[in-house]
Amino acid sequence: MGKKNKNVQKPTKTFIFQKKNYIFLFIGLAFIALGFILMSGGGSDDPNVFNPDIYSFRRIRLAPTLVLIGLGIQIYAILLNPNKNKE
Q1: Domain span at residue 68?
Q2: Number of domains in the chain
Q3: Using one digit for the tens of pLDDT, what is the confidence trace for 59-80?
Q4: Lowest mean pLDDT among 51-60, 64-73, 78-87
Q5: Do the domain assignments include residue 11?
Q6: Inside any domain, residue 23
Q7: What is the pTM of this model?
């Protein structure tokens, strides 16, 4: 039979993401949430009345840009390697 090795080390469990990753994840979520909040509203209570506020700069340009920036930050946070300098 084979020999039993008494000095076998158990693998340690480590998290994939570090504190820096989570900070960027939450910043990205904040950008996305802010973008969706800025996109909301602008409707009219009366369906026969047109509200031109739907096409404001805030809803057409600013809010989608914030959402896309937030998604970019999310991708960066996932791909970020905080241990790069240690190796």
Answers
A1: 19-43+50-79
A2: 1
A3: 999 999 999 999 999 999 999 9
A4: 78-87
A5: no
A6: yes
A7: 0.76
